């Protein structure tokens, strides 16, 4: 029931800025989604353009998939090859809010793909038990914003299970999936990026893909990994990101960043949706400033690939990190500190962070909160002119 309420709230959230504007007529004139004429509500344009990767050739035949279909394909491959694998969470039996598990219950049965009560703590606690018993547990938290009731189970139980038993027992077969990140109209409870909370916890792996090809390969690697993994899926990319994805199972390495664009003057580091923002920034910097930017997709937040980032910063002398979460205590701070310690003599300018503000995620002002390409481009200009 609560899941349905959440879906309803998401559906009407963009309309509420008009309904509650009151006397703010100037704001109404500025808003592209509000009009005095009755017509269908339109959402704000996305703050990025998706850049598909080249078609992978080494994993066999490919099919055009968006991101949620690539997730479904990874889960389908897992259920087909591992008879112990089970998928559970709120509404996963009918496909979930974002349709990532659609058709799997009909194909594999209600004993392997099933709904749970609306209790995130219970979902993860159950998943720990399933994994400790030797099965493969794939838990879905309906939105990453609602993962916090399960925080104790994840941090104090799942992450420490192997250590506390001296490696006699572990729950490494547990993977927790959750839609993550901003969408431009999700407001307080449907736009958060909580990866930094879990990056402080040894014993976990935290992964965020940038597109369908990475999503399938990284998710399969998380499921196969011997540690509990949290897999955050950029919800704005579920349908916006479309690529040719291999139909057969394949694995992409965890804790390995990818240089998606080489450059010589500035290193741009991001993950998830923000990688595509950085790609646009790199294009703008080249066209407007003649500045060559190297773009790195971190992919795994914990443990992160410091070697790849260091190698790039030694070459470029400048580093810009961007994420959607608030700037204070965000994972960009950890990257900045580590690179400053190891690459201090190579830096030509202070390390820059372009992130969300230290406020809750707003509603009608969400487009102003997002660290878009213009904010990042200004940061590049400041570094070049330092």
TrEMBL record:
GO terms for molecular function: branched-chain 2-oxo acid dehydrogenase activity. Keywords: Mitochondrion, Oxidoreductase, Signal, Transit peptide. Its main location: mitochondrion. InterPro entries: THDP-binding, Transketo_C/PFOR_II, Transketolase-like_Pyr-bd, Transketolase_C. It is found in: Mitochondrion matrix. Together with BCKDHA forms the heterotetrameric E1 subunit of the mitochondrial branched-chain alpha-ketoacid dehydrogenase (BCKD) complex. The BCKD complex catalyzes the multi-step oxidative decarboxylation of alpha-ketoacids derived from the branched-chain amino-acids valine, leucine and isoleucine producing CO2 and acyl-CoA which is subsequently utilized to produce energy. The E1 subunit catalyzes the first step with the decarboxylation of the alpha-ketoacid forming an enzyme-product intermediate. This is 2-oxoisovalerate dehydrogenase subunit beta, mitochondrial.
């Amino acid at each position: 029931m609560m899941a349905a309420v959440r879906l309803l709230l998401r559906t009407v959230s963009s309309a509420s800025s008009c309904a509650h504007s009151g006397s703010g007529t100037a704001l109404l004139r500025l808003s592209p989604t509000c009009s005095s004429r009755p017509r269908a509500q339109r959402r704000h344009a996305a703050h990025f353009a998706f850049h598909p990767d080249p078609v992978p050739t080494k994993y066999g035949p490919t099919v055009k998939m968006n991101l949620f279909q690539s997730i479904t394909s990874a889960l389908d491959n897992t259920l087909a090859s591992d008879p112990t694998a089970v998928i559970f969470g709120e509404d996963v039996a009918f496909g979930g809010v974002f349709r990532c598990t659609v058709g799997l219950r009909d194909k594999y049965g209600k004993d392997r793909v099933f709904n749970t009560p609306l209790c995130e703590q219970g979902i993860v606690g159950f998943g720990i038990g399933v994994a400790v018993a030797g099965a493969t547990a794939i838990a879905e938290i309906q939105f990453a914003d609602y993962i916090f009731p399960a925080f104790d189970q994840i941090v104090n139980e799942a992450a420490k299970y192997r250590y506390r038993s001296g490696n006699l027992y572990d729950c490494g077969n547990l993977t927790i999936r959750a839609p993550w990140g901003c969408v431009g109209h999700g407001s307080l409870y449907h736009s958060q990026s909580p990866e930094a909370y879990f990056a402080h916890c040894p014993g976990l792996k935290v992964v965020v893909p940038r597109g369908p090809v990475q999503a399938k390969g990284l998710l399969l690697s998380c499921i196969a990994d011997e540690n509990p993994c949290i897999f955050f899926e950029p919800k704005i990319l579920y349908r916006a990101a479309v690529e040719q994805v291999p139909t057969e199972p394949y694995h992409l390495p965890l804790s390995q960043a990818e240089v998606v664009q080489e450059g010589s003057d500035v290193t741009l580091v991001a993950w998830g949706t923000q990688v595509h923002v950085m790609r646009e920034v790199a294009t703008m910097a080249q066209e407007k400033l003649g500045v060559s930017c190297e773009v790195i997709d971190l992919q795994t937040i914990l443990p992160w690939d410091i070697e790849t980032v260091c190698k790039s910063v030694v070459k470029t002398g400048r580093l810009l990190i961007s994420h959607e979460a608030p700037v204070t205590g965000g994972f960009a701070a950890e990257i900045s500190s580590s690179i400053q310690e190891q690459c201090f003599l190579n830096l030509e300018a202070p390390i820059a962070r372009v992130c969300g503000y230290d406020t809750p995620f707003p509603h009608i002002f969400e487009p102003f909160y997002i660290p878009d390409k213009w904010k990042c481009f200004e940061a590049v200009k400041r570094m070049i002119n330092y």
